[in-house]
Amino acid sequence: MDHGFRFIWKSLIDTRRLLWIMVLTFAAVLLVQFFELPRDSVLSSLLSAGKVAFFGKRNFPDKGLSSNFGTVGNITDTNTIQEITNSAKNLNLTKEGFEENEGKYDRSKVDCFLNKNASMDKEFTSVNTGCSLRDSVGKCRDFEHTISSRNVTEKNDTSPGNIQTQYVSSTPGQNESSGSASECLLAFSSPNPVSPTKLDSVTPVISVEPNSSPVLKMPPEDNISMVNNTSSMTPSPSHGRSEMPKLASVTISKMNELLLQSHSLPSSTPPQWISTGDKELLHAKSKIENASSIDYDSGLYEPLYRNVFMFKRSYDLMDKMLRIYIYKEGEKPIFHESILEGIYASEGWFLKLLESSKQFVTEDPKEAHLFYIPFSSRLLELTLYVRHSHSRKNLIAYIQNYVEMLIQKYPFWNRTNGEDHFLAACHDWAPAETRGRMLSCLRALCNADINTGFVIGKDVSLPTVNVRSAKNPLKDIGGEPAIKRPVLAFFAGYMHGRARPTLLKYWGKDPDMRIFDRLPHVKGNKNYIEHMKSSKYCICARGFAVHSPRVVESIFFECVPVIISDNFVPPFFEVLNWESFAIFVLEKDIPNLKSILLSIPDEKYLEMLNGVKQVQKHFLWHAEPVKYDLFHMTLHSVWYNRVFRLNFA
């Protein structure tokens, strides 16, 4: 009897211990997920529904956005809209609500990047000195993604339009340009080519169930997993899924063909109704196509352009006719705010100059030819990226929901499916942030990579310009004459990606070339600049991303650019004949680089050098815009692509 009692008692004790172990294990799992996963995903990964609460307070510091979210559409992969009548209060989009949460918005870490006082630190002090993310009072904090190297893979396991994204972040450093904070490589992993309509399926789906708040079911490709191996650039295994290999290298000749096809066979959606602005654009298109020598401008160097007469006629028509409506919605810092220094400065300069333009901006949307979405991809990252989360899904969803709000509030987007809307974004993440519905926009992107969905003839390649001084963006511009350029070719920078280590391997010890890992820091970056000014050719080798400020720096310092970046669409490709002033070398041909350069006759080199000097005016930012400068050229490329994509069929 006693033995049986002891056995039962012992069993009860063992059961209690087992229950405690289970409770502690569950608590440990919650604790680990809280620190390791994006906070929105802590419970969703444990619950069968798998839903992520999107309209939490943490993600939206924007009062202006919340006030316009009275109704939100239920966006499905078939673009069916179901009205939702939940109020902004239920959506928790207020700034006050945002700041009550742990991931709260800290304005101080953004303010240090804005040019509001003369004592601000530079985001990137120079190409050679690297990143100095700091503030004199210690308010600015480094972000983990700009400090540590890592690989991140975005996966989509279910939808037919799968996109697989890999980006690798690393410490910005000396001579680093392209994507020093993070750089993207996208490869389609669908057995079939992905069309813009397929990509609409990645738009977040907001579902409403009885007696519940709206929740956002994020697309599977937004679930980003951490990969600690930084030595490999290959995507993670797909666990049995079929993958489409990365697109083959697209040569500059093939890009020329794609541009001609785009303009000869418009693929845009016919508008629901033809506006006065459409008729004006159609009239402009006819005039541009019939341009002749009467449009000649002695201030334009003819070899630089695909057709100098068409460019001149188009530019003059834009200057006379173009009217742009800028959406007022969205609060600072993500909207209507600019960073004017560093390698992402182009988007800030364009936004600032356009919003202050009295010539091109109209307050009447009915007379507008184009509609501008005034956001900064850099400030979107600085404001909303959750440290240690390794996830961009809240950034992507934030800008997508902003666009959904515009669609609900105004009729303009739906008239053309957004094809008369445009944006300018320079951060490496911008292609991912502007996917979904925004793929139909005219996107001016620094990361102009065909592999990430950049569409030649629609999207615009925005120059990546490393602005060292907002007060004097033209500092140090100019170079030595050809006779004082004894170095055949120059490159210095971090060994990011595959191209640069190959470049160093083959040519790092060549006596005729100056190919370095990094240069010692010198005040004012003078050693780097002097090398550019004393070299015949400046190597613009891609890092992890295709774009690099070296392309524009070469033009600044009058050094013929040698672009080694497969699938990179060079800036203002619509109108500029890049082969007249730049050399394009495929990454696989790096072992033959020296023989390629030596095979160029001196006469050809001098012609290209003159072209570099002549094209320089198109890549300059001015506090007050000047004819043919970078502001006007960006605006012109957007205008030009819209004109030639008109389709009234």
UniProtKB/TrEMBL annotation:
It is a single-pass type II membrane protein. InterPro entries: Exostosin, Exostosin_GT47. Its main location: Golgi. It holds the Pfam family Exostosin_GT47. The chain crosses the membrane at residues 18-35. GO terms for molecular function: glycosyltransferase activity. It is found in: Golgi apparatus membrane. Residues 151-181 are annotated as: Disordered. One of its GO terms (cellular component) is Golgi membrane. Keywords: Glycosyltransferase, Golgi apparatus, Membrane, Signal-anchor, Transferase, Transmembrane, Transmembrane helix. Residues 158-181 have a biased composition (Polar residues). Residues 320-598 form the Exostosin GT47 domain. Belongs to the glycosyltransferase 47 family. This is Exostosin family protein. It comes from Forsythia ovata.
